[in-house]
Amino acid sequence: MTTDNSVRVSVLGLGAMGTALADTLVKAGCATTVWNRSPGKADGLVARGADVAATAGDAVRAGRSVIACLLDHASVHEVLDPLTGELAGRTLVNVTTTSPAQSRELAAWAADAGVAYLDGGIMAVPHMIGRPGASVLYSGSADAFDEHKPLLELWGTSTYFGEDAGLASLCDLALLASMYVMFAGFMHGAAMVAPAGVTASVFAAHAAPWLTAMTGEFQGYAAVIDGEDYSVEGQQSLAFSDLDDLLAASADQGISSEVVDMVQRLIQRQIDAGHGEQGFARIIESIRQPG
Ligand code: NDP
After folding, report:
1. 8-164: which CATH topology?
2. What CA–CA distance (Å, rounded) separates 78 from 204?
3. To pair with 136 at 20 to 30 A between CA atoms, which of 80, 123, 247, 267?
4. Is the CB of 71 under 6 A from ligand 1?
5. What's the rounded Cα separation, in Å, for the pair 210 and 23?
6. Does 176 contact ligand 1 (Cβ within 6 A)?
7. Which residue has the least CA distance to atom 8 on ligand 1?
8. Sheet strands (E) in 79-232
């Protein structure tokens, strides 16, 4: 498929994301067959040049490579279990969100069926697909990734993590975990200033450049973590990173201290273990070894 636009690709699932993925392929001139469980969702794509298949089986038979963008792991099995015979010898690129264990299970299922399997984790919302900023993480068959890369790049930056099919999902979820904790931190700050009459919009205008600048610290922390030496000179110590002032100010504002408490507990466990003079990055040891 890939650079040869005459090689047909099939997209199963025309929800918001599946439609965006299929639309990008069609606009790039790829021969694309689409299928959706409920009728009517393919009309716009057909008007732009896609073919619509009446059944999932027809769609699989039409494409040498099959993109699955369904709701979840169960729906992938529901649609594809009856079609293992048709899928054999083809490539399945599954960008449906699944857990790492579910991705590995699908890779084993595909191997049994003679299907080349590539698992994808989409780091974008539908309107970002095909635009700068969209990124999709992949793991599974290296050959499938190499063969399909020109096509995958139509959706966004594509990064391959390795043959372990669960890796893309794991990294996807790790990035989401980082995002949610950052968002919770932003919400805490917004709640903190609100009683003083500072709106969330005004706070956001300050928080965005501040947090963006702070992401510049990630690589320094990463070097310390990978180097496994929290005593390297120049690091902010755990003892210096006491968050009592933040907690007291939060209490004075009458808000919950849960978000900051969580970080303080991670710091305190390392101080209690006698590591107070070591660097802040050492809180990763509190996370690695649950208290
Ligand atoms: P939607 O809810 O918009 O669409 C879900 C799709 O799955 C529809 O095509 C639906 O068909 C189909 N489906 C659900 N259950 C079944 C089933 N049992 N059998 C056959 N088809 C089924 O979701 P999205 O398109 O937004 O998301 C699709 C995948 O992409 C999800 O795994 C999601 O996590 C992932 N994703 C989405 C992002 C987003 O921002 N939207 C971001 C990153 C990943 P029908 O129309 O018949 O209901």
Report:
1. Rossmann fold (3.40.50)
2. 43
3. 80
4. yes
5. 37
6. no
7. 15
8. 91-94, 116-123, 135-140, 157-160
The backbone torsions φ and ψ at residue 140, rounded to the nearest 5 degrees and listed phi first, read: 120, -140
In sequence order, what are the beta bridge partners of 12? 35, 68
Region 199-288: CATH code: 1.10.1040.10
Q: Is the CB of 73 under 6 A from ligand 1?
A: no
Domains of the chain by residue range: 8-164, 199-288
pLDDT in tens, 105-154: 999 999 999 999 999 999 999 999 999 999 999 999 999 999 999 999 99
Residues 154-200: pLDDT tens digits? 999 999 999 999 999 999 999 999 999 999 999 999 999 999 999 99
Pairing of strands 135-140, 157-160: parallel
CA–CA dist 219, 225 (Å, integer):
10
CA 199/CA 189 separation, integer angstroms: 11
